[in-house]
Amino acid sequence: MNCLMKRRLIVGERIMYANGAMPVNCVFAVTLEGRLQQERIEAAFARLLVKHPLLRAAIREDEPQRPYFEIAATAPKAAVEVLPRQGNEDWMQVAMAQWQQPFDYRQAPLMRVCWLKGETVSDLVIVLPHCICDGGTIVNLMRELLAGIAGQDQPAGSYLSFSFVSELVAQQQLPGKGALLKARLLSGVAGGVLSLLTRNKTVATGRQHYMVRWSVDRELSQQLISACKAAGTSVQAALGTAFLQAFGTVLGAQAKNKLICPVDIRKAVPGIKEDMMFAFAPVVELRGAGKAAGTSVQAALGTAFLQAFGTVLGAQAKNKLICPVDIRKAVPGIKEDMMFAFAPVVELRGAGKAAGAFWEEARRMKQELQQKVGKLKPNQLLVLTEYFHPAADKMLKHLRSTPGSHDVTLSNMGKINIPVAYNGFMLKRVYSPSTALPWKNPNTLVVTSFEGQFDFSFISEETFLPAERAAMIRDVFMTLLQNNVVPVALAHE
């Protein structure tokens, strides 16, 4: 291979690489109306391979078993898998099959394109390893792919991947010597603690992942946004609250009343360009005790989802959400179309049995989310986490052998910014991206908004949470949303 450059995987990429032992794939699908041509899809795919260096990468391991990217100077052949489209749900079967289809990390490309071909309606499904992309990356790749198929003019050329994360951070925002020393010490402590926590524990082996999907019509979607504004909260907090409550109902005492939220750091890190592929996502944890004023749409969604979990799972629900956080705005160097896969997360806890009203809890959750995201310092986090490579394998085992202290990871990706009209075809439907995590706790809710309509994908694994109970959580969640959103929205029309 004509090698352009080599660089080691950063810690976040290493975790999602999972030592190459199991697939951890991101999948994104859309439905198109119009007549497509295979050669145009392949040509658009080929342009992506030229532009984004990580798509041309293979992953090798050196002597200490430290994985690194080996990026080719030239792009491999862009081959599109063509499948017959026989119904509107075919894409889901393809997506779930692609979760389990491993990439050959020894050779590029690290991206697959599946075309479910119909006469006038088709589906496009793109698949990437999670170790090279986050939600923002896969959406941008779909946007560029559709533009290429339509023959739209796009900037030519490529960009260079970074060699060290410090290149992405402005000099004045680099951590000081004290912080670096502390990171070294904490890495050693973390390794010891994780060894104790995972001793004699078996890793998750279940691969019966499933996806429960649903969408909210445009009227209720707009009512949710209006109600969140009127109540002073966010959509994510409202969703998280309702979902944790639904978990509590189903799981009972087993519910943990916590959610975890990944954080998009692109806007906080100048070196991560808008179109750069990147895959590091820190998290924040949100809890539910206490009361506070003020809330948002994200808070409202989180509230609703927590309540739904509590309703369905009862004592088994943990009443916690984990939410990824987009740091791109905090890191100006991460451009919108740059492949990037680091997303910090925040953990949010739902209210206990003495919880207040739905909107009161959503306001409290919004405030907690804002406080935790504000404390992240993504530029320093990017650099300091690199000192935890010695503990990376233990971190991975911990994820695969312990259920965590949260109920669900809530990834609110917000509005999907992809045009609808193209030369020769129209974008008919956008489905929330999905990933089947091989962790002990794979519960993940992905929320998107497109053309004024919310869309949900809840992914889990049968031996951890049976699909039947997941469907119950969805139903309780939607009941909580409707019962709390509609009256507030109508009162403020």
From TrEMBL:
Lineage top rank: taxon: Bacteria
Name of the molecule in the record: Condensation domain-containing protein
GO MF: catalytic activity
Residue stretches making up the Condensation domain: 28-245
Native source species: Taibaiella chishuiensis
The organism's taxonomic lineage, starting at the top: Bacteria, Pseudomonadati, Bacteroidota, Chitinophagia, Chitinophagales
Gene3D superfamilies referenced in this protein's UniProt entry, alphabetically: Chloramphenicol acetyltransferase-like domain (3.30.559.10), Nonribosomal peptide synthetase, condensation domain (3.30.559.30)
